[in-house]
Amino acid sequence: MKSFPQVAAGVVAAAISSGAGIGMPAANAETWLDKAKQTLPSLSHPEGKYHHPTHSDRNYPFLRAEVLEYRPRSDESDFRWDMQGWYGGDFNRLWVKSEGERNTAFKADYDIDMQLLYGRFIKKYYDFQVGVRGETQTFRGENVARAHAVIGFQGLVPYRYEVESALFISQDGDVSARFQTSRDFLLTQRLILQGRFETHAAVQKVERFTTGQGLNNIELGLRLRYEIRREIAPYIGVSYDHSFFKTADFVREEGGDPSQVRFVAGLRLWF
Amino acid sequence: MKDSISRRAFLKRSGALGTLVALDWMLPAYARPGSLSAVTPVSQLSGDVIDLTIAETPFRVDDRTTTAITINGTVPGPLLRLREGQGITLNVTNRLSETSSIHWHGILLPPEMDGVPGVSFPGIEPGMTFSYRFTVKQYGTYWCHSHSGGQEQAGVYAPMIIDPIEPDPVKYDREYVIMLSDWSFSSVESMIGKLKKQPGYFNFQKRTLVDFVRDGMQDGWFSTLDNYLMWAQMRMDATDLADVTSHAYTYLMNGLTPAANWTGLFRPGERIRLRFIQVGVMTFQDIRIPGLRMTVVQADGQNVQPVEVDEFRMGPAETYDVIVEPKEDRAYTIFAETMDRSGFARGTLAPRSGMTAEIPPRRPRPIRSMADMGMQHMNGMGHGDHEPGNATRSEPKKGMQHDMPGVHGEHAGEGIQDRHEMHDRPEIPGSKPVKHGPDDHGTGNQAIPDFTQSRLDEPGIGLGGDDRRVLVYTDLKSLKPYPDQREPERELEIHLTGHMERFMWSFDGKKYSDARESILFRHGERLRWTFVNDTMMEHTLHLHGMWMHLENGAGACLPRKHTVLVKPAERVSVAITADAPGPWAFHCHLLLHMETGMFRVVEVLDVIPEVKS
After folding, report:
1. Quick check: A52 contacting B, CB < 8 Å?
2. What are the Cα distances from residue B186, in Å, to A180, A189, B195?
3. Is the sign of the CA dihedral A218, A219, A222, A227 positive or negative?
4. SS3 assignment, position B209
5. How far apart are CA B273 and CA A179, in angstroms?
6. Which one of A51, A54, A84 would you mutate to disrupt binding with B, by most B Cβ within 10 Å of its Cβ?
7. What pLDDT digit, counting tens, does each position of A92-136 carry?
8. CA-to-CA distance for B368 and B315, rounded, in angstroms?
9. How far is CA B222 from the centre of its chain?
10. For A136-154, b where at least 16 C-beta lie within 10 A, e where not — what string?
11. Does residue B178 sit in helix, strand or coil?
12. What is the ipTM score, two decimals?
C-alpha cells in the first residue's frame, strides 16, 4: 500500500479545508433551518438567518476518523480505519460509519464495513441507532458481501468510557454482535493516551465471513496521540488481536495468524 | 449647592474631554486616529437624533488585522451620551449582507423598540434603516449590542451613559467607560459547532496525569483517585469553568488588547468614576486595581449604597460603576482576570502618558466544588486543614442525583467551597437548601443537583480565599427604596438546564426551539421569579423591558438589575413589577447559551388565561 501516505495527506487536506469552511459565515447560510415558526403570530416577515431570536434547532455535520492507521510489517503493509459521522441536531441524527482493514491480521485480504443509521438521543447519554450495514471481504480469493439490519447504541457511560455496541441480523438470518469501548487519559493537555477494546461474537457459524460460533475475537489497543489542534492528532500505538475457537481455525485456514501484536501509526481526525 | 453642581458639570465635561485627549495621547501609534481606523471609543454622540451604521470594518488586534462588525466604524462603537427625560431617535442603518439589530440593554422602552428579531421586531434587513424612537426614562451606565446571531461577539456593541436630570448623587471629578469584551477570530457559529462535537474543545486547563501526581502527593493517593474517579463517574469535568477560553479569545478593554494597554489619565487626588461594562459574550471577569480600593456606586445603571471592595466579578452584560481615588503619583493596573484564569484584559490609570504598573500574575484556575454540584454537606467539614476559598484543588464530592444512588452525603464533608448556610438570613428566599423535585428535565438536561440554595453571599468560584474584600450580591442595596414595595402576589420558578456533553442549553430542559410558548405575566402584577440553576456553570439571566429586584435581603432597598448572575446549584429570587405590556426576551446572556436555546419570551398581558400560584 504505497499509496497510503498520499491518501492520508489527501484526507488531511480535505479535513483542513472543510474545517476552515465551517468558520465562514457565508458557508453557513444554507444550513440554518429556516422554519418560519414565530413566537408571535402578529409578526410576519420573510424567512431569514436572523429573523429568529436563537437558532437552537440548527443542524451540524460531523465526521471523525478515530482510527486511520498504517500497520507496518516486514513483508506486507496493512492499514485500517474506523470512521463515523453524523448530520443532524441535538436529538436526531443521521449516522454513517465505516470500518475497514487491508491485509487484516486474522481475516481476509480486505474487510470493509459500512453502516447507515438513524440515531435518537435518549437517556441523557446515548444514541439509540437503527439502520443497515453492508459488509464485504475476500474469502478464498473471491469477494463476498452481505447486508445486515442494525440495532445499536453508543454513548458515554459512567467513568467516561465511550461505548459503541450493535446487534446485526444478516440477510440470511445470522445474528452477530459487536462491542467497542475506549477511554482517553490526558498525560498533558495535548498528549493523550487512548485505550481501546473491541470484540465480536456470533450466534451462527458463517465460514464465508470467517466467523465462528460464540466469541470471535478481541482487539486491545493503546494509542498515544498528540493533538496539534483538537481536530488533528497524529498517533502511534500498539494493537493486540486475538481470535478464538472456530474463528481462529478459519483464520488459520485463510493463512492468517489468530494472535498477533502490531505496531501502528496513524492520524486521528475530525471536523 | 448650586456651585458644586456647576463645578461638577464642568468637571464631568472636562472628564469626558479627558477621555478623548487621553486616548489620543495614550494609544500606541497604530491605534491613533489616522493610522488605523477605529480601535477604541474615541467618539461620543449625543443629541435628539443619532445615526448609527452597522458595517464590516478592518480591525487590528495586536499584529493581526481582521474584520470586525462595527457600529460607526469602531469597536466598541461610539459612546452614546443621553439625558434622562429626552426623546431620542436612533436611526440604525444595516450595511451588512445579513439581518441585523441593536438592542438597548437595560433600557425601559416600548417592546417594538427593544430590538430583538423574532420577538419584538423583524430585524433590520440589509441596506435598510430602522428608527428607534423612545423617551429616555432612566439614567446610569448602560450599553447596546446586536441581538442577531454572533454579531455581538464580532464587535457590535457600544457604551451608553444617561445623565440624570436631578443632581447625580455620585460625586466625581473625572470619568471613564471601561468596556470589557472578548474578541475572537472565529465566529459564534463555528464555536458552537466545535462545542457540539467536543465539549471541552477550548479548555486547555483540564486535569492531566501531571495534576493527578501532584494532587496524589499532596492529598494522598487514595483520596485523589477517589476524587478523580468520582468526577469521571459523573461524566463531568471539574475544570469546566468556561466554555470558551483564551484559546479562542483575546480579552479587550475598550477595544484594546493587554499589550495595547488602554490608559486613562488622572491627577492624584481626583475622584475617578469608572463605568465598567462587561460585554464579554462568554466571559466572566474578576476586576481589581492593585493599590486602589474601589467604591461600588452603581450596578446595572442603578445607584446603590456605596460599598468599598478590592475586587468584583462581572458576568456577561452586567455593569458596575466604581469610584477610585488614586492619591499617589504612579500608574495603576486595571486587571480583569477571567474566571477560568486562562487570560485577562488590562489597562492602566496613570498621571502621565506612557506609564505602566506591574501586571499581577494570574491565580491558579479553580476547581468545581461540591457546592457547585448541589451536594448538600451534612457531616460538617471533614478536612479542616483546607483553607476556605483556596479552591485550586478543592474536592468536590458526589452530588448529581441520577448518578449517585445511595451515596449522598457519604463523603460530603470534603468540599472546600462549601456553602455556608445563611441561617441568619431567612428574609432571603432559598437561604435554606431546597431539595430538587423528581423532574430531572429529560434528556436535554444532563443532571440535577440534590439541593439548590441561595449563594448570594458567596463571592463565587476562585474568589474569597485571600484578604481581598470581594463584592457579593448581598452587598447591593439600592440608594433609595423603589416605589413598588408590594410583596409578590405570585411565584414562578424556572430551572436553568443544560447538557455539557452536547453543548445544549435550555430552561426547564427544553431549548427555545422546542418551547416557543411565552411565559405570561399579568400587567400590573408583582411577582416573584425564582431561578434555579441545575447546571454546574454560572449564567447571567437578562430580562428585557422590566427590572428584576434582586431579593437579597436588603429589605426596602432591594437592588434593581437587568442581568442577574446565577451560580451553579444556586436558587435566586427576583421580584418583578410587570409594568411593561408586550413581548420581551428573557435569556442567558452567555451568547452561545442563548443561541443554543437558553431563551424564552415573556409576555406581559392584561389578562392571562390561567394564573398558577
Report:
1. yes
2. 35, 22, 13
3. negative
4. helix
5. 64
6. A54
7. 999 999 999 886 655 567 889 999 999 999 999 999 999 999 999
8. 17
9. 39
10. bbbbeeeeeebebebebbb
11. strand
12. 0.85
